[in-house]
Amino acid sequence: MKFIPNPFNTFINVLVLYLIINRYLKIPWLKSIFASLFPLIVFGLLGMLISNPYMTLLHISHLDLVSIPIYRIIYSILMYILVFIIIAIIKLCNLNINFLEDIDTKNKFIIFANLILGFATLAFQSIITVYFINTLPVIITFFSFVTLFVYFGLSIYSLTRVMKLTLTTRKLQSAEEYNNSLRVLHDNVRAFKHDFDNIVTTIGGYIRTNDIKGLENYYVQLEDDCQRVNNLYILNPEVVNNDGIYNLLTKKYNEADSKNIKVNITFLLDLSTLKMKIYEFARILGILLDNAIEASSECEEKIINLTFREDTKNKRQLIIIENTYANKEVDTEQIFNKGISGKENHTGLGLWEVRKIVKKNNNVNLFTSKTKKFFLQQLELY
């Protein structure tokens, strides 16, 4: 932008670049900021390192560097060679920024503040360099580069440590939840084994007396216990292969179980291939499960059927939540409007938020329907 003097136009360029990445490419805000600022930080540091020695070696001024094409081309080639070396090192070390998707809000703002502070520091240093580069000794620019490089190095190291701590904490939480599931599963299996002889004897009694109706009722009750053990087997990190979703499902299952809701879980989905941001997926899943638990808890027959599976024929991933419900007059369209809720002391924002997230993602659909017995939410990811 030529109507804004250099280097102040850099701030406007960063803002425009951020808006393009965030709004049009649909990249999360923190990644958009990182993508906008990180290249400028790298080029700023490299420029601070090589500009003064380059001009001193060729005995040229900053004006010559900017206005004479041959000097500018050689300078740019040197810059891009160094950038290429940095990219090669990053690839060699297998570094990535995927952790930005899985961290909490507090740590996101810490990273954001660090990036902004680093960019502001570099910007002021660049302004000083532009105006005083002809009078600054090479040693001063070198030490300026070293101090900034150390600052960014320590910042990245500290953030890496924080991210590792966050991930370790999350894994410990998952391990704790899994241990609780294992303990309950172990107790159920022990109880089942202890009662096995009695179960077989009871079945034999029904068969000897040809009491098929009694046998059917007994089988239904026995099936409920078997399903509970099966659910606890499914709820483990090897099957639900995402720590966040595993913790969410375990928490909601225990909440439903405490309200005597029968939960049937079928999990046939690899969450590492999920075609949606895990943060948005967790928000939708949490809201839908909360509603299912709330609705089924008000029924005489309390049932939730939860299915995760791949539909390879139609190239989609399906998450289906069925629950019994008492309000048969519920409007499956009206419930998504802001402020609409059938529950006391509720804001009615949950399903409104769900619809907002679904509309943001072109590859996500949510179909809501009901039968006489079940209320159904079907989330489809293409």
Verbal overview:
By secondary structure, the protein is an alpha+beta fold. Helix content is 64%, strand content 10%. It contains eleven helices and five strands; from the N terminus they run αααααααααβαββαββ. It is elongated and about 110 Å long. It starts with 8 loop residues before the first helix and ends with a strand. The mean pLDDT is 80.
Helicity range: 55-70%
Order of helices and strands: HHHHHHHHHEHEEHEE
Mean model confidence by pLDDT: 80
Structural class: alpha+beta
The global form is elongated
Report the sheet-strand fraction.
5-15%
Tell me about the largest β-sheet: 5 strands, mixed
Write the topology of this structure.
Layout: H1 9-24, H2 29-58, H3 62-67, H4 69-92, H5 105-132, H6 138-194, H7 196-208, H8 212-234, H9 243-258, E1 262-268, H10 278-297, E2 303-311, E3 316-324, H11 350-360, E4 364-370, E5 374-381
Parallel strand pairs: 1-2
Antiparallel strand pairs: 2-3, 3-5, 4-5
Helix pairs in contact: 1-2, 2-4, 2-5, 2-6, 5-6, 6-8, 6-9, 9-10, 10-11
List keywords for this structure.
single chain; 382 residues; alpha+beta; Heat Shock Protein 90; 2 domains; 5-stranded mixed β-sheet; 5 strands
Provide a compact summary of the structure.
It is built from 11 helices and 5 strands.
